[in-house]
Amino acid sequence: MKKLVSLLLVAVMAVSMLALTACGGSDAPKGSGNNDAPKGNITIGIPNDPTNEARALELLQVQGIITLKDTGDIEATVMDIAENPYGVKFNEIEAAQLPNVLQDLDYAIINSNYAIDAGLTPFVTEGTDVSYPNIIVVKEGNEEAPKIKALVAAINSASVADYINSEYKGAIVCDLTAPINDGLDASVNYDELKGEKITIAASPTPHATILEKAKEILAAKDITLDIQIFNDYVVPNNVVESGEVDANYFQHVPYLNDFNAENGTHLVPVLEVHHEPMGIYSNKYDSLDAITK
User: Fold this and answer.
1) Sheet of 197-202, strands arranged across
2) Which residues of the chain have pLDDT under 70?
3) What's the CA gap between 42 and 291, in Å, rounded?
4) pTM more than 0.85
């Protein structure tokens, strides 16, 4: 009798194990069910401001890492990720800080201005069809002021265009479509501007460096270009809105539109100068294979 009971218990246990396996239990192969997507340990740092976060996520979608919801909103966030089949973890970090924390991440998606400043090289960048031109911005109503027109002409010059193309070799892409040979506006009376100072707030790289070429053109007309360097994305707009500074150069149009809407400011673009392809960087890997394989 005891032998019969033992045989029955063995049979019941065998049936139970088969049932567990069929239902995706511990003996089922990983990834065999709809909910068994691979779970990785990869962490990617992305910018935490709306437009650049959306660009970073779009770049990852193009690379097949994630799929975004089709919301029609250009300001996608991690909350808009529909599929994350590789179980990637995301750290939303201030854009300027991403190069500083790259060593603590597997990958980071960084604006090229910050990457260049840190001596970093991407292994993947946005396509040539993606463009967020960085712009010269002034307070609404000042667009036709003589010193603003002089500033715009000096930046929209052949020497600035040549400098961007030769210095950055595609890492920064020039958007000056019709540069003026001498960088002078024929409608401006430069004699009346002699001794004037034009102030402009700018990010360090490449904005302030590019402005140095325009500074030379204005200096030849006895006009001083005072380049004030900022490392954040808020104060440069505030000082233009308040009238403390004449113009700024650090942002693209979607960021400006968001800033105006959120802060009630009245800032307008007057010139598209360059754009900075966003890229994927890593101190550990030279491809995305660590995620996908």
Assistant:
1) 173-174, 267-275, 134-139, 247-252, 197-202, 224-229
2) 1-39, 72-74, 128-129
3) 7
4) no
How many helical (H) and strand (E) elements, i.e. helices and strands, does the chain have? 10, 13
In this structure, whether the domain defined by 43-130+279-292 belongs to CATH 3.40.190.10 is answered with yes
Q: Which residue has the tokens 């924390």?
A: 101
Residue environment code for 41-54, b if the CB has 16+ CB neighbours within 10 A, otherwise e: ebebbbbbbbbbbb
What is the distance between the alpha carbons of residues 288 and 293, in angstroms, rounded to a whole number? 9
Rounded Cα gap, residues 76 and 264, in angstroms:
23
d(CA 217, CA 153): 9
| C-beta of residue 111 within 8 angstroms of C-beta of residue 95 | yes
Q: Assess if CATH 3.40.190.80 describes domain 134-276.
A: no
Domain locations in the chain as residue ranges? 43-130+279-292, 134-276
Looking at residue 17, what is its pLDDT?
A: 35
Tell which residue, 201, 17, 45, 170, has the closest CA to residue 109. 45
Helix (H, G, I), strand (E, B) or coil at 19: helix
3-state secondary structure of 179: coil
Report pLDDT for 4: 38
Rounded Cα gap, residues 108 and 123, in angstroms: 11
Q: Please, which residues have CB within 8 angstroms of residue 224's CB and are 6 or more apart in sequence?
A: 196, 197, 198, 218
The string of DSSP letters for 151-178 reads HHHHHSBHHHHHHHHHHHTTSSEE--SS
Q: Can you give the three-state secondary structure of 223-258, one letter per residue? A: CEEEEEECCCCCHHHHHHHHCCCCEEEEEEHHHHHH
210 closest CA partner among 124, 262, 151: 151
CB atoms within 10 A of CB 56: 29
